[in-house]
Design brief:
Number of strands of chain A: 8
Largest sheet of chain A: 4 strands, antiparallel
Strand content of chain A: 15-25%
Mean pLDDT of chain A: 92
Oligomer: homodimer
Amino acid sequence: MQEVLFEFISKYITLTADEKDALLSLDLFHTVKKGTVLLKEGQHSKESYFVLKGCIRTYYIMDGEEKTTAFYTELNALTPPCVVNKTPSDYFISCVEDSILLISHAGMEVEINARFPKFDVMCRMFSEELLARQQTDFDAFKTSSPEQRYLSLLQKRPDLIQRVPQHQLASYLGIKPQSLSRLRARILEKKS
Amino acid sequence: MQEVLFEFISKYITLTADEKDALLSLDLFHTVKKGTVLLKEGQHSKESYFVLKGCIRTYYIMDGEEKTTAFYTELNALTPPCVVNKTPSDYFISCVEDSILLISHAGMEVEINARFPKFDVMCRMFSEELLARQQTDFDAFKTSSPEQRYLSLLQKRPDLIQRVPQHQLASYLGIKPQSLSRLRARILEKKS
DNA sequence: CGTATTTCTTAACTTAAGTGAACGAGTGGC
DNA sequence: GCCACTCGTTCACTTAAGTTAAGAAATACG
């Protein structure tokens, strides 16, 4: 698992053995069981997550209903807005599958960034990259219908459709579970 | 206008007089006429934009139709994905109003960051903040109807509804201009 | 193993968005 | 000042998503 992390980092910066050791000494690796709730609405958290294996999701509870807005799978990172804004969280984070995560505290990041300025550069590159991707995804969402969104998900993240419950997928696509069922039936209809 | 910039920066870092001079020597300020196209689909651009006054928008042309996905007004910044990914641009950027912009090249940023590491820290803070906001906005979009989106825009950016053409607003809300007209009529109906 | 619960699908009906077309108001260009 | 064009609105009609409800299938759990 450590290899996976170092390979990922190597896409941005080159680490010395010392720096690798410093990273490993931080006790970042955690295994988390399916269903575990990592963050609750209203909490003041300072934790960021990086998925090495498995899947976590963010969701709101609105009128007693869960609304899933994002899934994070292998090599995806999540710093909740509440950490950045220092406000109570608006949403929940839970584990969709048994997962292996990197969990880092805001304080730890400050410390390691002070010792190795390289990390700061990597964080900046990474967050700019995420921002660009996020913008592109948002644009695609705005300019397409639920059906188009589903078809494009089928192309881009076919695994998600297998590993995630339909009703969570539905709100991720911006619709109700019943509409997703119907939409899938409609697509099968067309193919034949 | 320079004051506006420095006041904005002061929310993140403290600049010395030297650093301010260095910034000003870069020839960042530009006045741009309404309707000017700053970036075209297919172009390889390295420019980032920061709006000091006015309004710019990003839009795609799909099936010959413009789809506006974002508006950037006072104190908003935009680094197009094509700059980050070094790919040809998927979208256009144009000026909605006569505007005063900061336009920076990727190369210039590298240079100033090398001379003043502070800027790098600011850029990282800023892009993390943007990412968090972007996530929140995306979540809100996914979990609400066109009507709710319109009402919330009315709350959060009432100026936009005045300064921007309806058909551009419509695609920003993820719907057609006719639907926006109808939706507004529906809301007025309800109020009475 | 059987029961309870969750998940997914289907159906009938309601509501709202998409589509195509038409019209008046405003705008810009010549 | 006139014409062409864009823009916003309205209408009738189509299509798809929301809602409510019911039932089947899968899963969790004692």
